[in-house]
């Protein structure tokens, strides 16, 4: 069994996520939690170092139509700050017809129609700014090393790099 097949099994067997799409409590207020641009979670100025606690918080995180991020339970909703994107893509595995990516909270996702890869260009620097769109309005920033691995897997067509997964094509940008 390939690593990607193993990952597909892990995805299908991932412990159930809380049904936060069903929870709509009134706003409880702001909580002093910041997700920094490098993916670190900070509470009242101190980094949350317990990975399991970060995973728990990430499991109840969503972005709403107002563009704000909230930690949601059935009875409470707390607004937090996010400097860039709340999650990071830290690894990727490829097979001929699909690609899986791993977030910094240990969730695997297979790129495709429901989980697209989007690459924008930073207007100031001209650098690519890749992200993966996830559920609940969340996105994950693709780390530089992972992006270089995706580029290595891409095919070139008319000067543009393309990555394929589950029948979907994702543009990684133009070759210079």
UniProtKB/TrEMBL annotation:
Pfam families recorded: DUF1285_C, DUF1285_N
Chain ranges of the DUF1285 domain: 18-84, 95-172
Protein name per the record: DUF1285 domain-containing protein
Domain of life: Bacteria
């Amino acid at each position: 069994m390939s690593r990607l097949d193993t990952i597909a099994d892990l995805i299908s067997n991932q412990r159930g996520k809380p049904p936060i799409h069903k929870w709509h409590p009134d706003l409880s207020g702001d909580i002093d939690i910041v997700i920094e641009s490098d993916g670190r979670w900070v509470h009242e100025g101190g980094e949350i170092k317990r990975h399991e606690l970060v995973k728990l918080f990430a499991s109840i995180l969503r972005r709403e139509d107002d563009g704000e991020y909230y930690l949601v339970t059935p009875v409470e909703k707390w607004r937090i700050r996010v400097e860039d994107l709340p999650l990071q893509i830290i690894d990727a595995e490829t097979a001929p017809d699909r690609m899986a990516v791993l977030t910094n909270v240990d969730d695997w996702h297979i790129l495709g129609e429901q989980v697209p890869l989007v690459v924008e260009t930073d207007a100031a620097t001209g650098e690519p700014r890749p992200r993966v769109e996830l559920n609940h309005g969340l996105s994950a920033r693709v780390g530089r090393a992972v992006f270089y691995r995706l580029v290595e897997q891409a095919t070139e067509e008319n000067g543009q790099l393309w990555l394929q997964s589950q029948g979907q094509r994702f543009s990684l940008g133009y070759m210079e």
